[in-house]
């Protein structure tokens, strides 16, 4: 389980720079295909397996477009 934008950014983008953390927050609030997440208090969290599934789905959308 990944807790916090920095951990999620490190997993998805291989970097926990602030700009990638902001991108995680943007993806969470995206209305089209939001990043799957849940909250633990005020922090966002996500399961690695769920993120891998979401990434695979996003790759499918990219090929279809």
Observed structural traits:
65 residues, globular, alpha+beta, 3 strands, single chain
Task: Explain what the structure shows.
This protein has helices at 5-13, 18-29, 48-64; strands spanning 2-3, 38-40, 43-46. 58% of the residues lie in helices and 14% in strands. It has one domain (2-64). It has 65 residues and is α+β, with helices and mostly antiparallel strands. The model has no long low-confidence stretch (mean pLDDT 93). 11% of the residues are buried. The protein has a three-stranded antiparallel β-sheet. The chain contains three helices and three strands; from the N terminus they run βααββα. α1 packs across α2.
């Amino acid at each position: 389980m990944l807790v916090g934008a920095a951990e999620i950014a490190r997993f998805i983008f291989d970097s926990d720079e602030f700009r990638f953390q902001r991108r995680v927050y943007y993806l969470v609030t995206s209305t089209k295909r939001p990043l799957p997440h849940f909250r633990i208090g005020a922090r966002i969290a996500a399961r690695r397996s769920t993120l891998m599934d979401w990434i695979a789905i996003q790759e499918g959308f990219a090929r279809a477009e």
